[in-house]
Write a structure and sequence with these properties.
alpha/beta; 13 strands
Length: about 400
Protein backbone atom coordinates (compact mmCIF):
# COMPACT_ATOMS: atom_id res chain seq x y z
CA UNK A 1 0.00 0.00 0.00
CA UNK A 2 1.28 3.45 -0.91
CA UNK A 3 1.32 6.74 0.94
CA UNK A 4 -1.05 9.70 0.90
CA UNK A 5 -0.12 13.19 -0.32
CA UNK A 6 -2.21 15.84 1.43
CA UNK A 7 -2.37 19.21 -0.35
CA UNK A 8 -3.71 22.05 1.78
CA UNK A 9 -4.43 25.66 0.83
CA UNK A 10 -3.54 26.62 4.41
CA UNK A 11 -1.47 24.90 7.08
CA UNK A 12 -4.01 22.89 9.12
CA UNK A 13 -2.60 24.13 12.42
CA UNK A 14 -3.43 25.58 14.83
CA UNK A 15 -7.02 24.35 14.43
CA UNK A 16 -8.51 27.72 15.33
CA UNK A 17 -10.68 28.52 12.29
CA UNK A 18 -13.11 26.50 10.20
CA UNK A 19 -10.84 25.31 7.39
CA UNK A 20 -7.93 24.56 9.73
CA UNK A 21 -10.15 22.64 12.12
CA UNK A 22 -11.47 20.38 9.37
CA UNK A 23 -8.05 20.02 7.77
CA UNK A 24 -6.31 19.11 11.01
CA UNK A 25 -8.79 16.43 12.01
CA UNK A 26 -8.83 14.87 8.55
CA UNK A 27 -5.03 14.88 8.48
CA UNK A 28 -5.00 13.25 11.91
CA UNK A 29 -7.57 10.68 10.75
CA UNK A 30 -5.53 9.80 7.66
CA UNK A 31 -2.19 9.68 9.50
CA UNK A 32 -3.63 7.12 11.91
CA UNK A 33 -4.08 4.78 8.96
CA UNK A 34 -1.33 5.48 6.43
CA UNK A 35 1.86 7.47 5.96
CA UNK A 36 0.98 11.00 4.88
CA UNK A 37 3.08 13.66 3.15
CA UNK A 38 1.83 17.18 3.89
CA UNK A 39 2.35 20.13 1.53
CA UNK A 40 0.54 23.34 2.36
CA UNK A 41 0.60 27.11 2.08
CA UNK A 42 1.12 29.54 4.95
CA UNK A 43 -0.24 33.08 4.97
CA UNK A 44 0.56 33.82 8.62
CA UNK A 45 4.17 33.98 9.82
CA UNK A 46 3.31 31.79 12.81
CA UNK A 47 2.26 29.00 10.45
CA UNK A 48 5.73 28.65 8.96
CA UNK A 49 6.88 26.57 11.91
CA UNK A 50 3.92 24.41 12.99
CA UNK A 51 6.04 21.34 13.75
CA UNK A 52 5.30 21.25 17.48
CA UNK A 53 1.56 21.51 17.00
CA UNK A 54 1.53 18.88 14.27
CA UNK A 55 3.91 16.54 16.10
CA UNK A 56 1.28 13.85 16.55
CA UNK A 57 0.72 13.56 12.82
CA UNK A 58 3.79 14.94 11.05
CA UNK A 59 7.55 15.25 11.19
CA UNK A 60 8.58 18.12 8.88
CA UNK A 61 5.86 19.19 6.47
CA UNK A 62 6.63 21.27 3.38
CA UNK A 63 5.19 24.70 4.13
CA UNK A 64 5.28 27.30 1.34
CA UNK A 65 4.79 30.99 2.07
CA UNK A 66 1.99 32.56 0.02
CA UNK A 67 2.55 36.28 -0.40
CA UNK A 68 0.86 37.06 -3.72
CA UNK A 69 -1.31 40.17 -3.48
CA UNK A 70 -4.95 40.13 -4.43
CA UNK A 71 -4.30 42.79 -7.06
CA UNK A 72 -1.59 40.71 -8.74
CA UNK A 73 -3.78 37.61 -8.64
CA UNK A 74 -6.66 39.55 -10.21
CA UNK A 75 -4.49 40.83 -13.06
CA UNK A 76 -3.14 37.32 -13.70
CA UNK A 77 -6.69 35.96 -13.68
CA UNK A 78 -7.89 38.48 -16.26
CA UNK A 79 -4.89 37.84 -18.53
CA UNK A 80 -5.14 34.05 -18.26
CA UNK A 81 -8.95 33.84 -18.24
CA UNK A 82 -8.81 31.86 -15.01
CA UNK A 83 -10.63 32.35 -11.70
CA UNK A 84 -8.84 34.59 -9.20
CA UNK A 85 -9.26 31.73 -6.73
CA UNK A 86 -6.71 29.78 -8.78
CA UNK A 87 -4.20 32.48 -9.69
CA UNK A 88 -4.06 33.60 -6.05
CA UNK A 89 -2.76 30.14 -5.12
CA UNK A 90 -0.58 29.52 -8.17
CA UNK A 91 3.01 29.14 -6.94
CA UNK A 92 6.13 27.69 -8.57
CA UNK A 93 7.71 26.56 -5.29
CA UNK A 94 4.68 24.56 -4.26
CA UNK A 95 4.43 23.02 -7.70
CA UNK A 96 8.06 21.90 -7.46
CA UNK A 97 7.45 20.46 -3.98
CA UNK A 98 4.54 18.39 -5.30
CA UNK A 99 6.54 17.12 -8.27
CA UNK A 100 9.47 16.16 -6.02
CA UNK A 101 7.23 14.34 -3.53
CA UNK A 102 5.45 12.35 -6.23
CA UNK A 103 8.76 11.41 -7.84
CA UNK A 104 10.43 10.40 -4.57
CA UNK A 105 7.69 8.45 -2.82
CA UNK A 106 5.18 5.68 -3.49
CA UNK A 107 2.04 7.83 -3.39
CA UNK A 108 -1.19 6.01 -4.20
CA UNK A 109 -3.67 8.68 -3.04
CA UNK A 110 -3.71 12.48 -3.32
CA UNK A 111 -6.04 14.21 -0.89
CA UNK A 112 -6.79 17.72 -2.19
CA UNK A 113 -8.13 20.08 0.45
CA UNK A 114 -9.96 23.01 -1.22
CA UNK A 115 -10.45 23.50 -4.94
CA UNK A 116 -7.55 25.98 -5.23
CA UNK A 117 -5.11 23.10 -4.72
CA UNK A 118 -6.45 20.90 -7.56
CA UNK A 119 -4.25 22.83 -10.01
CA UNK A 120 -1.26 20.93 -8.57
CA UNK A 121 -2.53 17.53 -9.61
CA UNK A 122 -0.53 15.65 -12.28
CA UNK A 123 -1.92 15.92 -15.80
CA UNK A 124 -2.62 12.19 -15.94
CA UNK A 125 -2.56 11.01 -12.34
CA UNK A 126 -1.97 7.35 -11.56
CA UNK A 127 -3.04 7.98 -7.99
CA UNK A 128 -6.51 7.91 -6.47
CA UNK A 129 -7.77 11.53 -6.26
CA UNK A 130 -9.93 12.61 -3.32
CA UNK A 131 -11.17 16.17 -3.86
CA UNK A 132 -12.39 17.82 -0.67
CA UNK A 133 -14.19 20.93 -1.90
CA UNK A 134 -15.56 21.51 1.63
CA UNK A 135 -18.06 24.06 0.27
CA UNK A 136 -19.17 24.97 -3.24
CA UNK A 137 -17.08 28.13 -3.59
CA UNK A 138 -18.59 29.09 -6.95
CA UNK A 139 -22.01 29.35 -5.30
CA UNK A 140 -20.54 31.71 -2.71
CA UNK A 141 -19.26 34.02 -5.45
CA UNK A 142 -22.61 33.84 -7.23
CA UNK A 143 -24.20 35.10 -4.01
CA UNK A 144 -21.59 37.86 -3.78
CA UNK A 145 -22.44 38.89 -7.35
CA UNK A 146 -26.12 39.26 -6.44
CA UNK A 147 -25.20 41.48 -3.48
CA UNK A 148 -22.72 43.66 -5.41
CA UNK A 149 -23.05 46.48 -7.92
CA UNK A 150 -21.08 47.73 -10.91
CA UNK A 151 -17.58 46.34 -11.64
CA UNK A 152 -17.56 44.29 -8.45
CA UNK A 153 -20.77 42.49 -9.48
CA UNK A 154 -19.18 41.71 -12.86
CA UNK A 155 -15.99 40.42 -11.20
CA UNK A 156 -17.89 38.22 -8.77
CA UNK A 157 -20.13 36.88 -11.52
CA UNK A 158 -17.07 36.09 -13.64
CA UNK A 159 -15.47 34.27 -10.70
CA UNK A 160 -18.63 32.24 -10.10
CA UNK A 161 -18.91 31.13 -13.75
CA UNK A 162 -15.25 30.23 -14.24
CA UNK A 163 -14.92 28.56 -10.87
CA UNK A 164 -18.02 26.42 -11.35
CA UNK A 165 -16.67 25.27 -14.71
CA UNK A 166 -13.37 24.40 -13.02
CA UNK A 167 -15.05 22.64 -10.08
CA UNK A 168 -17.08 20.52 -12.48
CA UNK A 169 -13.99 19.50 -14.45
CA UNK A 170 -12.08 18.58 -11.29
CA UNK A 171 -14.99 16.53 -9.96
CA UNK A 172 -15.22 14.71 -13.27
CA UNK A 173 -11.66 13.43 -12.94
CA UNK A 174 -11.67 12.75 -9.18
CA UNK A 175 -12.43 9.37 -7.64
CA UNK A 176 -14.53 11.12 -5.01
CA UNK A 177 -15.64 14.68 -4.31
CA UNK A 178 -16.37 15.63 -0.72
CA UNK A 179 -18.51 18.36 0.84
CA UNK A 180 -19.07 19.35 4.44
CA UNK A 181 -22.83 18.78 4.38
CA UNK A 182 -25.41 16.92 2.35
CA UNK A 183 -26.95 20.28 1.44
CA UNK A 184 -23.68 21.39 -0.20
CA UNK A 185 -23.25 18.00 -1.89
CA UNK A 186 -26.78 18.14 -3.27
CA UNK A 187 -26.27 21.70 -4.53
CA UNK A 188 -23.09 20.63 -6.31
CA UNK A 189 -24.79 17.65 -7.94
CA UNK A 190 -27.66 19.86 -9.09
CA UNK A 191 -25.40 22.60 -10.49
CA UNK A 192 -22.77 20.40 -12.17
CA UNK A 193 -24.37 17.00 -12.74
CA UNK A 194 -21.33 15.39 -11.12
CA UNK A 195 -21.45 11.93 -9.59
CA UNK A 196 -19.21 10.31 -6.94
CA UNK A 197 -20.14 13.21 -4.65
CA UNK A 198 -20.25 12.55 -0.90
CA UNK A 199 -20.97 14.44 2.31
CA UNK A 200 -18.28 14.10 5.01
CA UNK A 201 -19.38 16.34 7.85
CA UNK A 202 -17.36 18.31 10.36
CA UNK A 203 -17.16 17.21 13.97
CA UNK A 204 -16.35 18.90 17.24
CA UNK A 205 -13.92 18.07 20.05
CA UNK A 206 -16.37 17.97 22.96
CA UNK A 207 -13.60 17.27 25.47
CA UNK A 208 -11.93 20.57 24.56
CA UNK A 209 -15.14 22.54 24.06
CA UNK A 210 -16.59 21.61 27.43
CA UNK A 211 -17.88 24.15 29.97
CA UNK A 212 -16.30 21.97 32.68
CA UNK A 213 -12.83 22.10 31.09
CA UNK A 214 -9.98 24.23 32.44
CA UNK A 215 -9.72 27.64 30.75
CA UNK A 216 -9.34 31.25 31.82
CA UNK A 217 -12.71 32.77 32.67
CA UNK A 218 -13.93 36.11 31.32
CA UNK A 219 -15.49 38.54 33.76
CA UNK A 220 -18.82 39.75 32.49
CA UNK A 221 -21.41 41.95 34.13
CA UNK A 222 -24.83 42.05 32.51
CA UNK A 223 -26.08 40.30 29.39
CA UNK A 224 -23.27 39.35 27.00
CA UNK A 225 -23.96 38.42 23.38
CA UNK A 226 -20.99 36.78 21.62
CA UNK A 227 -19.99 36.22 18.01
CA UNK A 228 -16.80 34.29 17.16
CA UNK A 229 -14.92 34.02 13.89
CA UNK A 230 -12.14 35.18 11.60
CA UNK A 231 -12.85 38.88 11.42
CA UNK A 232 -11.34 39.73 8.05
CA UNK A 233 -13.68 37.26 6.34
CA UNK A 234 -16.41 39.00 4.39
CA UNK A 235 -19.45 36.97 5.57
CA UNK A 236 -18.35 37.47 9.21
CA UNK A 237 -17.82 41.20 8.68
CA UNK A 238 -21.29 41.52 7.15
CA UNK A 239 -22.83 39.47 9.97
CA UNK A 240 -21.44 41.51 12.87
CA UNK A 241 -22.13 44.79 11.08
CA UNK A 242 -25.76 43.81 10.58
CA UNK A 243 -26.07 42.69 14.19
CA UNK A 244 -24.36 45.74 15.72
CA UNK A 245 -26.17 48.32 13.61
CA UNK A 246 -29.64 46.80 13.25
CA UNK A 247 -30.29 43.95 15.69
CA UNK A 248 -28.44 45.01 18.85
CA UNK A 249 -30.37 48.30 19.22
CA UNK A 250 -33.62 46.29 19.28
CA UNK A 251 -32.22 44.01 21.97
CA UNK A 252 -31.04 47.00 24.01
CA UNK A 253 -34.53 48.46 24.05
CA UNK A 254 -35.44 45.55 26.34
CA UNK A 255 -32.02 45.01 27.91
CA UNK A 256 -30.18 48.36 27.93
CA UNK A 257 -27.04 46.86 29.48
CA UNK A 258 -26.65 44.14 26.83
CA UNK A 259 -23.22 44.09 25.20
CA UNK A 260 -22.11 42.50 21.95
CA UNK A 261 -18.62 40.97 21.88
CA UNK A 262 -17.01 40.35 18.48
CA UNK A 263 -14.32 37.75 19.22
CA UNK A 264 -11.78 36.81 16.58
CA UNK A 265 -8.47 37.56 14.94
CA UNK A 266 -7.65 40.17 12.29
CA UNK A 267 -10.68 42.48 12.66
CA UNK A 268 -11.04 44.63 9.55
CA UNK A 269 -11.26 48.41 9.76
CA UNK A 270 -15.03 48.14 9.43
CA UNK A 271 -15.17 45.73 12.37
CA UNK A 272 -12.86 47.86 14.50
CA UNK A 273 -15.10 50.84 13.84
CA UNK A 274 -18.03 48.94 15.33
CA UNK A 275 -16.17 48.96 18.65
CA UNK A 276 -16.98 52.69 18.93
CA UNK A 277 -20.68 51.91 19.15
CA UNK A 278 -22.38 51.73 22.53
CA UNK A 279 -22.28 48.21 23.94
CA UNK A 280 -19.98 46.73 21.28
CA UNK A 281 -16.66 45.08 22.17
CA UNK A 282 -14.08 44.11 19.54
CA UNK A 283 -11.52 41.81 21.15
CA UNK A 284 -9.22 40.97 18.26
CA UNK A 285 -7.38 37.66 18.56
CA UNK A 286 -7.82 35.85 21.88
CA UNK A 287 -5.70 33.03 23.32
CA UNK A 288 -8.72 30.84 24.06
CA UNK A 289 -12.21 31.45 22.74
CA UNK A 290 -13.77 29.16 25.34
CA UNK A 291 -13.69 31.82 28.05
CA UNK A 292 -15.79 34.15 25.93
CA UNK A 293 -18.20 31.40 24.96
CA UNK A 294 -18.62 30.32 28.57
CA UNK A 295 -19.34 33.92 29.59
CA UNK A 296 -21.94 34.42 26.89
CA UNK A 297 -25.58 34.81 27.81
CA UNK A 298 -26.27 33.91 24.19
CA UNK A 299 -24.09 33.20 21.16
CA UNK A 300 -25.22 34.54 17.80
CA UNK A 301 -24.41 33.57 14.23
CA UNK A 302 -26.35 36.10 12.10
CA UNK A 303 -24.67 35.26 8.80
CA UNK A 304 -26.47 36.36 5.67
CA UNK A 305 -24.16 34.21 3.55
CA UNK A 306 -22.93 30.85 4.83
CA UNK A 307 -21.79 27.66 3.14
CA UNK A 308 -21.52 24.23 4.70
CA UNK A 309 -21.41 23.70 8.45
CA UNK A 310 -20.54 26.58 10.75
CA UNK A 311 -17.99 25.43 13.34
CA UNK A 312 -18.75 28.51 15.42
CA UNK A 313 -22.26 27.16 15.99
CA UNK A 314 -21.05 23.67 16.92
CA UNK A 315 -18.47 25.12 19.32
CA UNK A 316 -21.08 27.23 21.09
CA UNK A 317 -23.43 24.26 21.33
CA UNK A 318 -20.63 22.10 22.75
CA UNK A 319 -19.99 24.80 25.37
CA UNK A 320 -23.66 24.45 26.41
CA UNK A 321 -24.57 27.98 25.37
CA UNK A 322 -27.92 29.00 23.90
CA UNK A 323 -27.47 29.88 20.23
CA UNK A 324 -29.44 32.09 17.86
CA UNK A 325 -28.49 31.62 14.21
CA UNK A 326 -29.69 32.90 10.87
CA UNK A 327 -31.21 30.42 8.45
CA UNK A 328 -28.00 30.16 6.34
CA UNK A 329 -25.82 29.66 9.45
CA UNK A 330 -28.04 26.87 10.76
CA UNK A 331 -28.35 25.04 7.45
CA UNK A 332 -26.49 21.75 7.37
CA UNK A 333 -26.43 21.38 11.16
CA UNK A 334 -28.55 18.63 12.71
CA UNK A 335 -29.40 20.68 15.79
CA UNK A 336 -32.71 18.95 16.58
CA UNK A 337 -34.26 22.29 17.55
CA UNK A 338 -31.73 22.81 20.36
CA UNK A 339 -30.82 26.21 18.86
CA UNK A 340 -33.10 29.01 17.70
CA UNK A 341 -33.19 30.15 14.10
CA UNK A 342 -34.27 33.55 12.83
CA UNK A 343 -35.18 34.39 9.26
CA UNK A 344 -34.96 38.18 9.59
CA UNK A 345 -33.21 40.73 11.77
CA UNK A 346 -36.42 41.24 13.74
CA UNK A 347 -36.70 37.47 14.27
CA UNK A 348 -33.12 37.21 15.52
CA UNK A 349 -33.59 40.17 17.87
CA UNK A 350 -36.79 38.63 19.27
CA UNK A 351 -35.08 35.28 19.81
CA UNK A 352 -32.17 36.91 21.64
CA UNK A 353 -34.52 38.91 23.84
CA UNK A 354 -36.54 35.78 24.66
CA UNK A 355 -33.36 34.00 25.80
CA UNK A 356 -32.25 36.95 27.93
CA UNK A 357 -35.72 37.10 29.48
CA UNK A 358 -35.61 33.44 30.55
CA UNK A 359 -32.21 32.50 31.95
CA UNK A 360 -33.38 29.16 33.34
CA UNK A 361 -34.80 28.19 29.98
CA UNK A 362 -31.60 29.40 28.30
CA UNK A 363 -29.50 27.19 30.55
CA UNK A 364 -31.60 24.15 29.65
CA UNK A 365 -31.38 25.07 25.99
CA UNK A 366 -27.59 25.09 26.30
CA UNK A 367 -27.52 21.70 28.01
CA UNK A 368 -29.72 20.23 25.29
CA UNK A 369 -27.45 21.69 22.61
CA UNK A 370 -24.35 20.12 24.16
CA UNK A 371 -26.08 16.75 24.44
CA UNK A 372 -27.01 16.94 20.74
CA UNK A 373 -23.43 17.74 19.72
CA UNK A 374 -22.00 14.92 21.80
CA UNK A 375 -24.45 12.44 20.30
CA UNK A 376 -24.13 13.61 16.70
CA UNK A 377 -20.81 15.33 16.04
CA UNK A 378 -17.79 13.45 17.37
CA UNK A 379 -14.93 13.63 14.83
CA UNK A 380 -14.45 9.89 14.69
CA UNK A 381 -18.11 9.35 13.87
CA UNK A 382 -18.26 12.18 11.30
CA UNK A 383 -15.13 10.98 9.47
CA UNK A 384 -16.05 7.29 9.50
CA UNK A 385 -17.45 7.44 5.92
CA UNK A 386 -14.07 8.71 4.73
CA UNK A 387 -12.41 5.38 5.49
CA UNK A 388 -14.89 3.55 3.26
CA UNK A 389 -14.63 6.16 0.48
CA UNK A 390 -10.84 5.88 0.48
CA UNK A 391 -10.66 2.14 1.10
CA UNK A 392 -8.70 2.61 4.31
CA UNK A 393 -8.23 -0.06 6.93
CA UNK A 394 -8.91 0.25 10.65
CA UNK A 395 -6.67 2.84 12.27
CA UNK A 396 -3.03 1.80 12.68
CA UNK A 397 -1.12 4.84 13.98
CA UNK A 398 1.43 6.30 11.58
CA UNK A 399 3.26 9.58 11.30
CA UNK A 400 3.22 11.97 8.42
CA UNK A 401 6.41 12.18 6.44
CA UNK A 402 8.65 14.96 5.25
CA UNK A 403 7.15 16.18 2.02
Amino acid sequence: MGDILFLGHRVPYPPDRGDKIRGFHILKFLAARKRVHLIAFADDARDLQPADGLAEVTDTPAIIWRAKSRAKAAVQALLSRKPVSLTAFDDVSLREAVEHTLASNAIDTIYVFSSQMAQYLPANPRQRIIMDFVDMDSAKFADYAKQSRGPMAWMMGREARLLQRYESAVAGSANASLFVSEAEARLFRDKTGADRVHAVENGIDTDFFDPAAAFAPIDSAGPLIVFTGQMDYRPNIEAVTWFAETILPQVQQRHPNARFAIVGRAPSEAVQALGKRTGVIVTGEVADVRGWLAAASVVVAPLKLARGVQNKVLEAMAMARPVVASVPAAEGIDHADTIRVGGTGDDIAAQVVAILDDLDGAAQMGRDARAQVRARYSWEARLAPLAAIMGLAVAAPQRCAVA
